[in-house]
Write a structure and sequence with these properties.
By secondary structure, this protein is mostly helical. It folds into two domains: 46 residues, no CATH class; 131 residues, no CATH class. 56% of the residues lie in helices and 2% in strands. The protein is built from nine helices and two strands; from the N terminus they run αβαβααααααα. Strands 1-2 form a two-stranded parallel sheet. Helix 3 crosses helix 4.
């Protein structure tokens, strides 16, 4: 009796959307309860295209992190910065946008949110950390990710020592998603600190 009533409700819902009962449904859920339900009504179930695309993009993101070390370094750096900011008072409130952390379930999508939040707050974060003599936390990103794609064959190598004596490249390498952030890194982080110490004498 309950099953008949359920089918009756389903037909009412279909009719409310001007759909004839028996049309091929598209679902976002692949759980056993959904699969069983459509088996009972003998209907074909198609998976949601958006969810299929998410699976493809998520797989591509995982492969990107394995193939390109800079993507993994980027996520690790931002994760460390976010942890430091949350544990240190007086930083988060001074940033124009909270530093996002990559999501464990939607990594490919959250990467863009992370990059956007970091790009918006990087200048303020640099000033705050420099004033606290913690600017070295930013230069992990600047030092390890100063490379272009392998296809360009234009590799820019910057060691930890050279960061303090030379400026990051001003030309944005092709296919380099981190160039806009690295250009905001102070050319000589230790110099500003020494100047501050000198002025305080």
């Amino acid at each position: 009796m309950k099953f008949i009533f359920f089918i009756y409700l389903v037909k009412i819902i279909f009719n409310s959307f001007n759909l004839s009962y028996g049309d091929t449904p598209i679902t976002t859920d692949s759980g056993s309860n959904i699969v069983t339900t459509f088996k009972i009504t003998d209907e074909t179930r198609l998976s949601c295209m958006a969810h299929r695309c998410n699976t493809v993009l998520e797989t591509a993101w995982d492969e990107t992190k394995k193939t390109h070390k800079d993507s993994e370094i980027f996520c690790s750096c931002v994760k460390d910065w976010r942890k430091f900011i949350n544990q240190t008072s007086g930083i988060q409130d001074e940033l124009p946008k909270s530093i996002e952390c990559n999501s464990g379930t939607r990594l490919w999508r959250s990467y863009f949110k992370v990059h956007d939040s970091l790009n918006a707050s990087f200048t303020a974060l640099t000033q705050i950390l420099t004033a606290r003599n913690k600017q070295h936390r930013l230069h992990v990103l600047a030092g390890n990710l100063l490379t272009t794609s392998a296809d360009d064959r234009q590799i820019l190598i910057t060691s930890t020592d050279s960061i303090s004596s030379s400026s990051p490249p001003q030309k944005k390498p092709k296919n380099d998603p981190f160039a806009d952030i690295r250009q905001q890194v102070p050319a000589n982080p230790s110099l500003s600190c020494r100047q501050k110490q000198h002025l305080n004498r």
